[in-house]
Amino acid sequence: MTTATPSPEMQRVQKEFLHRFAVPADALIRAPGRVNLIGEHTDYNGYPVLPLAIDREIRIAAIRRSDDQVRLHNCRRAFGERSFALSEAAVPFTLGDWGNYAKAAMIGLQDRIPHPARGFTALFDGAVPPAAGLSSSSALVVACALLFLHVNEVQVDRLELAELLARAEQFVGTAGGGMDQAASLLGRPGHALKIDFFPLRVRPVALPGAYRVVICNSLIAAPKTESALLEYNRRPLECRLAVLLLCRYLSHKTGRPVSAQRLADLAAIPLTEEEAASVLGPNPLSPAQLLDRLQMSLPELLRILDRAALPTPADGFKLLPRYLHVVHEAARVQAACQALEQGDAEAMGRLMEASHASCRSLYEISTAELDRLVEIALEHGAAGSRLTGAGFGGCTVSLVAREKVHDFIAAVTRDYYETFLAKHKPETMENGLPQDAIFATDAVAGAGLIL
Ligand code: GLA
Q: Is the model's pTM score more than 0.85?
């Protein structure tokens, strides 16, 4: 899909490409980041989410090569050059390296591209704040995938591509769901997207015109280290273990084998919260307790989970709180779609607050800074505010009446960045307020080829 004329920012990347390589780019690609309004950590459980594509995007200017080499250059100095042959795409760079996102796209598409595949030389410019929970990495994967398809003259249906890239991104080590790639590929101006999974389905939900979405970065980076990955990946694992225990219980109860992959697969089977609580709770489980309840040996469990080992959190597997968060958050997404469709920003606001509280106390993915930001946003008149994305740092999303946005941004800047953060984490504010720490965004169109 080719869209519109290049924006001034894109023209800058185009010019820089010409300047660096002395040939004009023959492809320009943009892929937006996303912000999730509600539905956190529901996607990999098979429940819906409600994100929108934001007006901060990854941009690429590139040329097709006649060989199988990939050369990645970046306008931002912090991201050094990377190069590899397509045949080496499966060998990752070090953990967290930006080149791995390009490799993930190549791996995801390897069966779709006729051999011998052609590579490219590309210049990237990233305007999606990194490590902020705004899916800069998925935008990068999506942009690389569109480029790879373009240089090899292959078309893939967008829904299919979103599913493919969600699986491919697991190459970088996160066991995420499919929200980020779908939001970046399928964004719709003026709309949030209700996204359902397995199979992927998308329905645009109009945003109330009298409100804007404001993103506030806590400036605590959501880290991409090994221990951060473990903390993130622990949640999908805990949910999967909850599914196994519930299946065992339901098989006994119904007298027929009940098997399921994800929590949403159990939604059609009658199961009260009290029953779930007695199966999963009340306390965190050690591996021994877990195996005992499952009546399984460790090798059996590992085979079912398709894992070599069982990463065990020091504070045990917290199955009940994770379960409660997911099923209630899923119900909140349905209610949020209705609230938006009825233009009821107050109802939407209440749902966002309940979501944040649940992310904080049941899913345990908030931080003191995110909690403070949410409080400050509500004090200054946001209809609703909550952390957004994977958590453990990153951003909040707030719904703010259009006419209040200017004052809201000024008040949050004063109370959070200049007062709270400057005192508690002065190093984050050493060079003043970073660009894009706080901004209002429109919902924009999904990724595309411009040239
Ligand atoms: C990350 C993942 C998504 C989703 C969110 C939490 O962004 O990539 O798939 O799980 O966390 O909602």
A: yes
